[in-house]
Amino acid sequence: MKKALAEMLDSTHLEKSAQEIVNRFIYHLKYQQGKDRFAATAIDCYLSFALAIRDLLLDQWLVTQASEYALQRKRVYYLSMEYLIGRSLSNAILNLGITRQAERALQDLGYDLSTFHELEWDAGLGNGGLGRLAACFLDSMSSLKIPVYGYGIRYEYGIFFQHIKACEQVETPDNWLRYGSVWEIAHPQRLYPVHFGGSVKPGFDCDGNHSRVWQPSEAVMAMAYDYLIPGYKNAYVNTLRLFSAKSTRDFNLNYFNEGEYVQAVADKNHSEIISKVLYPNDNNMQGKKLRLKQEYFFVCATIQDILRRFLKKTDDFTLLPEFAAIQLNDTHPAIAVAELMRILVDDKGLPWEIAWDITRKTCNFTNHTILPEALEKWSVELMHQVLPRHLEIIYEINQRFLDAIQVDSSCRRRLSLIEEEPVKSVRMAHLAIIGSHKVNGVSKLHTQILKERVFKDFYELNPDQFIAITNGITPRRWLMLCNPRLSDLIDKAIGKSWRRDLRKISKLRQMQKDLAFQEDLAEVKLRNKKDFCLFCKKNLHVELNPDSIFDFHAKRLHEYKRQLLNALHIIHLIHEIREGKEIYPHSFFFAGKAAPGYKVAKLIISLICHLGEYIKHNPELAQRLSVNFLPNYNVSLAQRIMPAAELSQQISLAGTEASGTGNMKFALNGALTVGTLDGANIEIREQVGAENFFPFGLKANEVVQLKSTGYHPYQQVQANPDLARIMSFLGSGELSPLDPLHFEPLLKLLLYDGDQYCLIQDLPDYIRVMKDVERSYREPSLWNQMSAANIAGMGVFSADEAIKKYAKEVWNLKIK
């Protein structure tokens, strides 16, 4: 009877909640879109429904902000150049806990929820792992009820929309804001001035003391737009605040009256270009200047916004570290150290020593790379042009830092914020380290490399400053949302407690050898694969074999991520099939964008696409192999990929990948990993069990040893018939008969230019491990057991766990 009563009450609540959504939908359709049911288009209906859901978010957001303001808890301020948030509608519905109500409401209205999901455009606010990590962290902070403001730039255009034409990457603008975004809330009253250029003159402060006065020559306004970030079923909503550049003058009437119509709006366009494009091409000086302006633009507006909020509480700036924790997500926002010092010293009149103490206690720095080219540097000349006062402050920070340490001249040069050669430059990572309370790497191996190699001198000066916090992913989007079949199966097997604490998914270990569970897991995977086949047939016009191994290499295109190694192995399989070897049917999928100016990465895409065409037009090969490049990789495509994946390629050269998070998403959805012992792969292997991971290749210390003793790829190829055959095929022109030398640059990189990322060295072992994969796949019970072990081991890789560690070890925050 109690159960019947509960079901009746639940049914009543469902109807009431669904009716509320229907009422809001009708209101927005009529009064926002100006349509009735006869005139409304699918887009009108999506917008009205999204606004109805946003209303529910706003209700909770207003309560959350008022509550946090009253509690006056310490806030986290997360500064990132990227936020790869994906689509917002489905995430909002999930985290609000209204999936059934939303489906019921749309059913009453005669619509389907999945149709509305597909009408939403992915937000073009990021490119790769850095932006996706930021989005996962905001989700986790909301789910853990940690007050946070994420800060970034509201890019009008994303990095680009990727097309594949004639086996080549072609870029077109990603105009994701063409029709605006229903999910953003504009705040015209939150308008902050940002200055550039000019000169610095001696002057006096309000107390008559000597000071430096910045007289900038250029100004732009930063206008705030808010996106709401809901926690998982906890009525707690945080804020992602993005700034858009607005001209200080919309229109020059004098130019217009004189007939200079173009010049009349030129100043406006020049100012507002700052927030036009994510990552402008910085191969030239204008691109570099714009990139530096972008970084300072959002940092300057952010610091003003933080201090505006702080000054509501007190004007005692020594208390700032008790109310604010600023987290710098990589080196892009590192100029925040100099900007906070400028405001405290120049604008607020604080003594340097006090201002520096406040700054170092407030700021923290997450490093995301060990590649030298990714450790950002700005030439002193450019910094002087764009931010002359900040350059002075950086020199002062550097001088005081070097005066305070007792090291030899060689060490001083390595530690200095200023690199003297080949071009005199500011080392932004050094600025972030010196100006931060804590510095963290994003995996155990990455942090070890930072301590022992990249920032060894800094670590020896202050070892307690450096800590390891392994990256994580939100299980909300990357399991519950993208893979409902698997989520339901896990609920059935171990209950629902894992949905709030992913560590409890470890209970699946007791189900690994259960034959019924294995069969159910295999059925879920097969149904997901068939869904992906339908998606590919509709969008790529390709027929796939759902019984083949679904093997994915989905990540940004870069040489160190070694998509080329994967392609070389496919060439090896071509030869194996032609020799009559038995190869299990294998579908290879690649996804990822190459930077427009990165010629080698684009050539690797071309090679992959040519391989796909070559195999497709050869019946003997097509029976066993399929090679597919999935264009325009983004969050929504990733959400389709993860549930269908059986094999995850994580094959970067050991010691080059800081962490990786794609590896975690694949494993959480039951894919097995082929990987080097790099980044978080090492920790994943520890958690899922070495027997459930396919390792290969050199270890990080072995890479260093190989290069120090001499690495000769050409000789290795000459000594190995399999390698020689692969290289011969690559250079033969068989893949591109109309342009036989098309792939000659790749051959040159591998054989004659040093093979920087050791593909030749690791290729034989990679061929070996892929044979191990095939043997395991031929035993379905073993494979399903290994798959279950991967899912069960992913609890520690929830972003919630990473955030708990940041809260305790970096931000000094207590979680409710």
Q: What does it look like?
A:
- The protein contains 34 helices and 22 strands.
- Mean pLDDT is about 95; it is low at about 1-10.
- A hairpin with a 6-residue loop joins strand 8 (about 220-230) and strand 9 (about 235-245).
- Helix 6 crosses helix 34.
- The strands form five sheets. A nine-stranded mixed sheet has the order 5-8-9-2-1-10-11-15-16. The chain has a six-stranded parallel sheet with strand order 19-18-17-20-21-22, sandwiched between helices. The protein has a three-stranded antiparallel sheet with strand order 12-14-13.
- With about 800 residues, it is an alpha/beta fold.
- About 50% of the residues lie in helices and about 15% in strands.
- The protein is globular and about 90 Å long.
The biggest beta sheet reads: 9 strands, mixed
Q: Which ranges are low-confidence, i.e. pLDDT below 50, for 5 or more consecutive residues?
A: 1-11
Strand-residue proportion: 5-15%
Structural class: alpha/beta
Mean pLDDT: 94
Individual helix count: 34
Using the alpha-carbon principal axes, give the shape.
globular
Radius of gyration: 28 Å
Q: Give the quaternary arrangement of the chains.
A: single chain
Give me a quick take on this structure.
The protein contains 34 helices and 22 strands.
Question: Secondary-structure blueprint of this entry?
Answer:
Blueprint: H1 2-31, H2 42-71, E1 75-79, H3 89-96, H4 99-109, H5 113-119, H6 129-143, E2 148-153, E3 161-165, E4 168-172, E5 184-196, E6 199-204, E7 210-215, E8 218-230, E9 237-246, H7 253-257, H8 261-272, H9 285-310, H10 320-323, E10 324-329, H11 336-347, H12 352-362, E11 363-366, E12 377-379, H13 380-386, H14 388-404, H15 409-415, E13 418-419, E14 425-427, H16 428-434, E15 439-441, H17 444-454, H18 456-461, E16 466-468, H19 475-481, H20 484-494, H21 515-539, E17 549-554, H22 563-578, E18 586-591, H23 599-616, H24 619-622, E19 625-630, H25 635-644, E20 647-650, H26 662-668, E21 672-675, H27 681-688, E22 694-695, H28 700-709, H29 713-719, H30 721-732, H31 744-751, H32 759-777, H33 780-792, H34 799-809
Parallel strand pairs: 1-2, 1-10, 2-9, 10-11, 11-15, 15-16, 17-18, 17-20, 18-19, 20-21, 21-22
Antiparallel strand pairs: 3-4, 5-8, 6-7, 8-9, 12-14, 13-14
